[in-house]
User: Fold Peroxisomal membrane protein PEX16 from Spizellomyces punctatus.
Amino acid sequence: MSNLVKKYEDFVLHNAPQISGIESGLRSLTYILPGRFNDADMASEAIFATVNLMSLYHDTILSAAAHQQNPEAPTSNFNRYTRHMLLSGGWYKKVAYTLTMVQMVEVLVEMGARKLGGRKGRGRVVLGIEVIKVVCRTALLKLSQNRMLLHSAVPERDYDPSTIQPPTTSKPGTWTGKRTGKHHVHVDVITQKGGYDQAVQFLLSKALTERASSPVDLLNRLGCHKWAEWVFIFRPLVYVLTLRRYGPKSYKPYLISLTLELGSLLASLNRPQTSLEKDETKRRCWLLLYYLLRNPVYERFTKERLDAFVEGARKRPLISLFAGILRDYQPLWEKWHFYTSGY
Assistant:
């Protein structure tokens, strides 16, 4: 089995551009499938989830090769932090990948549960998934020593797959420091093709910004504000539980969830934040737009205006394409919980 895995990893390294192109093509296909035929929504989501899972696995192979090929390439603070936490080993890596995979398949699992178990089966599965995510996020909060959770627990793709070169037996272009264990570019590489760019990247990586700090220090310990992170973690589960208690037509689940989310955000805004924490807080503010797509506000306010926009845009060039995609996806967020859960 290990030999088969090694062969597949070699295949990925030797065909990175082609694999990346196939992934992009399949993702584009999922945007036009909904509403085209019976069970097209489930087929689209199955393709989307499968491609995302494969991309996650491919990234573990290609990102290591990209870093080895160009260890001094600048990277975002988000990737610096997430890579550092994953390399810390232990349970953090296992929990992070578990949470990521659950998020990738949650809509597909919800659709399958509705098909096999009806509304009750779907409701139980949605509750179970939210419980799993709460357990994972609680574990990540503890393992990170009470630091703010980011929108993803794994790094984003920050390399161009077309530049990945398969391993070679020729002389490597880097050397490893005995004391730090870090990889550095050889001086003689500067005289080779592309050497100037590598020199610039090296100097940028040493600039006295937040890059000079330890990756773990890119997020502050929450201290007395950790209650706000606990509220943000448990909010989706509370929303599902109150939905089961009061029903989707009641304003109680909606208002309880909105109050918890606003309280968490206000607490985050009222404490000193690093640039990475500010970016995450801004993203959480944008997530409030999902409340326009949740009942009962959606049925009583948003839906009528959305229908009017789609109808009015039908005869307008370019805008009609966007309106068509919006119309195809409209039944999805009206029907499936995880399309509008936002977290």
